[in-house]
Amino acid sequence: MKPADVYILNKPEPFKSIMMHVQAVIIHTLPTAELKYKWKLPCYYIGKRPICYINQSKDYVDIGFWHSAYISKKFDPYLVSEKRKIVKSLRYKTLEGVNDAVLMDILKEVYEHKDKSFWR
């Protein structure tokens, strides 16, 4: 089993279920995304380019986007920056709280900017 899968499967509920659901949404939205294990976290990449990471921290699951500057301001109410200059994230405490539409739209926006200079 891959380290990224072990990371997710070893998390307690409800975090494991949230992470598994998020994985399904990511793969559904970006079928070419590849799950890797970087910085001791599950991270999704397309080619050599990072898309997002998944992390369980405190009492929530954090889906972090490195290239948040390219995410529309309309998603600001959903994103948390919390003293981070570049990374913004979606945070979920329950499986029911996961907003698939918002997650999918953000993933699509990040992917659409793959030809921008930050991807090089």
Report low-confidence residues grouped into runs of 5 or more: none
Query: Helix and strand string, N-terminal first?
Result: HHEEEEEH
Distance between the termini: 31 Å
Shape, principal axes of CA atoms: globular
Mean pLDDT over the full residue set: 91
Quick one: how many beta strands?
5
Rg on CA atoms, Å: 13 Å
Strand order of the largest sheet: 1-2-3-4-5
What share of the residues lie within helices?
A: 25-40%
Looking at how many chains there are and whether they match, the oligomeric state comes to single chain
Strand content bin: 25-35%
Please tally the helical runs, counting DSSP H or I stretches of 4 or more residues: 3
Largest sheet: number of strands, sense, barrel closure: 5 strands, antiparallel
Structural class: alpha+beta
Characterization of the model:
25% of the residues are buried. Helix content is 29%, strand content 26%. A five-stranded antiparallel beta sheet has the order 1-2-3-4-5. A hairpin with a 2-residue loop joins strand 1 and strand 2 (41-46). With 120 residues, the protein is of the alpha+beta class. It is globular and about 35 Å long. It holds the Pfam family DUF1801. This is DUF1801 domain-containing protein. It comes from Bizionia hallyeonensis. Residues 16-109 form the YdhG-like domain.
Brief summary:
With 120 residues, the protein is α+β, with helices and mostly antiparallel strands. The chain has helices spanning 3-9, 15-29, 100-112; strands spanning 34-38, 41-46, 49-57, 60-65, 88-92.
